[in-house]
Amino acid sequence: MDLQYVISLGRSAIYTVLLVASPMLVFSLTIGLCIAILQAITQIHEMTLTFIPKIISVALALIVFLPWMISTLLSFTTQLLESIPQLAQ
């Protein structure tokens, strides 16, 4: 195992984590932005107003994207486990 392989493995692991987390982050960001605009328009500055819609949006994103997230993580893990015999050489 050389340094180039370790860097490539780390890069692909970080990319996979960002790819899997991005749907929930995007949903939370858009809901937070919409609520911030609504708060700015109505001048309601309640800090706890954003928590419940963000939690609900993240839960819905998790429910919708969970099969895709599992398949992405499973393919990464399968690829990683299949590369183990090549590392022993």
* SSE topology string: HHH
Radius of gyration: 19 Å
Low-confidence stretches: none
The general outline is elongated
Helical residues, percent? over 70%
Main β sheet profile: none
The tally of structural domains comes to: 1
Tally of extended strands?
A: 0
How many helices? The count is 3
Report the portion of residues in β strands.
under 5%
What does this structure look like?
The chain is mostly helical. The chain has one domain. It is built from three helices and no strands. The chain has helices spanning 3-42, 51-82, 84-87. Helix 1 (3-42) runs antiparallel to helix 2. The model has no long low-confidence stretch (mean pLDDT 91).
List the keywords.
mainly alpha; 0% strand
Give the SSE layout.
Layout: H1 3-42, H2 51-82, H3 84-87
Helix pairs in contact: 1-2
Short description:
The chain has one domain (about 5-85). It contains 3 helices and no strands. It has helices spanning about 5-40, 50-80, 85.
